[in-house]
Specification:
- The structure is a single chain.
- Helix content is 47%, strand content 4%.
- The chain has 541 residues and is mainly α.
- A hairpin with a 2-residue loop joins β3 and β4.
Length: 541
Amino acid sequence: AGGVRLSYAMLPEGGCWPRTEKAFKARTYQFEGGRRKTWTARLTFGPEAGSNCQEKRLNSPLFATAATAWYRDTGAVLPLAEAFGEHGADSPFAEAANRYDRLQRAKVADEAGDMAGPLAGEVLKLRMLDSLWNRETSREEILTRADVWGRVSIPGLRERHPDIFAGWMNYGDLVWDFGYCSLHYDWPYAMLIHHLRLGDPEFLDVAEDMVRHRYDIDQYHVENTATWLGGFQRYEKGEHGHLERQTPHNTRWEMNVRPSHTWNRGLLLHWALTGDPRSLDAAEQNGRAYRRFFYDQHRLHEKETLPRREFRTPAWAIENWLALHEYTGRPEYLDWAREIFEKTLLAMERENGGRGHILPEGRQDAQQTAYMIEPVVRLHHYTGCPDAAGFLRRVLDWQRREGTLRGVRRRGAYYPLLWRTDWDYNPSPDTRIAYGATLHYNLLFADGYAYLHRLFGRRRDRDFARRLFAEFMLYYAADIVSDPDWRAPLGYHHHGSPLGFASKLHAFSGRYGLYTLQSGNDSRLPKNTGERDALREEIEL
C-alpha cells in the first residue's frame, strides 16, 4: 500500500559461481547448459510472525506417511524390510541385521555411529592407508589418520566443511574421487526407503536436500542433442560446472552424462510422497533418454540381439523403465524392459552356452553382474517370466562357483569372501592388499541369492545370502580380520575417511540388502513347494 515495495535477493550475496577470482570480481553466476536451480521462499509478516506456532510450521512442517507395513505389504515400495530392531545377536546374521539399521541411522546422525578408527584395541588393517605410501603402515600412522574424523554423518560433514559439502551448487551432493558423485546409485532412494522403514525424519530432511540437487544440478535437462547424452543423469565424477577444478585433461567442459550412471527410482518415490512435479519430470526425462539410446541409436526393435560388453547399461535401462512402470502404471515401460532383457542379457548368456556367464570368455567383472541383479529380480517379480528366473539361477550359480575368492580361515585370521573384479588377480589367502577383488558387492549379490531361495527353496541360497550380508556388515572396512571380535566402524566413513569410497560403499549399504532382510513371502512369489517345483520344471524344460 502507498507505493511500498519489497525486494529480496534470490542469489546469495558473495556466492558467485564458479568460485573463482574472475567470477567474484565480475559478481557473476554461471550455469553450465542443462542445469537448473530452484528455490523455496517463505515470507511471514506482522507481529505474529515470530510466534511459536509459526516457527513450528516453518521449522518442522507436517509430513504425512502411511504405516510402514502398508508400503511393504501392498507392494507400493519393494523391497521394504521391516526394521530389525535390537534383537539378541546370537548369530552373525542377527548381529549384522542390528548393525544394518544402526548404520543407516549413523548416516544422518553422528551419535548413532562409531569412531572412524580402531575399535576394541584392534588396529584397522586398511589397504587404502597402505597404498598411500606403498608400504606397511605403522600402528601410529593408522591411529593418527583413522581417528581424525571421529563420528561422521552427512549432516555433520556439512557443518564441518561447508565449503566442500554445503556450497551453493554442492549442497545435497557428496564428495567422490576427484569431484562429486552426483548422488550415484540413487542416494535419494536410499534415504527415502529408510525414512519409511525407520520413521526417522532426519532421513526425510537429507532426502529433500538430495532430491533437489538431483533434479536441478545432477540432471542434464537437454534432450535435443546426441542420443547418448540428452536427458541422462550427470556422471559421477563432476565438478558441477566448475571447470577450473576439473582434472587437467578435461578442463573445457564437465564430463559427459552417461547411460551407465543414471537412476530415477528415488525421484519417483519422492514424487509419490510429496507430489513435487520436478521429480517426475526428471525421472521421465531419464526414461525417454534410455528409449532414444536403445531404440533410436541402437535400433533395438529391429534386431534379434544387441550384445554389450558393458552390460550394466541395459540393466540400468531396465531399472529406470521398471521404476516408471511402477509409479506411473504405463505398460510400455514394462514392454521395453522385457525386450531389452531378452535381447541383451539373456541373449548374451544363451549365445555363450547358457552356462551362467554373460561374456564369451567368462571373465566378467563382478561389478557388472552385481548391478544387473536387482533389475532382473524386479522384472521377474512383475512378469513371472521363467526366462528371468532361470537366467538368475544360472548366472548366480556360476558367479558363486567361478567368481569368488578367499572366504577362508588361516592361522587364526579370517579372510572374507571377495568377488573378482580382475580375473588376472589370483592372490594367496595371505596376500594383504586385494586390488583385483572386493567384498563391497556383497549386499547386491546377497539379495540375488535371497531371491533365488524364495523362488526355488534351495537352503544353500538362503545360507549364502545371509553369509554375504553378515560379512559385509561386520567387516566392510577390512580384507583380513585377525580378531573375530573386531567390527568395521559404523557411520558415513570408510577406510578412515569420508572423502574416499564412502559415497559409493554407503549407497550400496543403504539401497541393497533389503531382500535378504525381508521376512515372509510376497504374494506374487512362489510360497510353497508345489509352486517352486512347477517353476523349476518350466525352466528346465
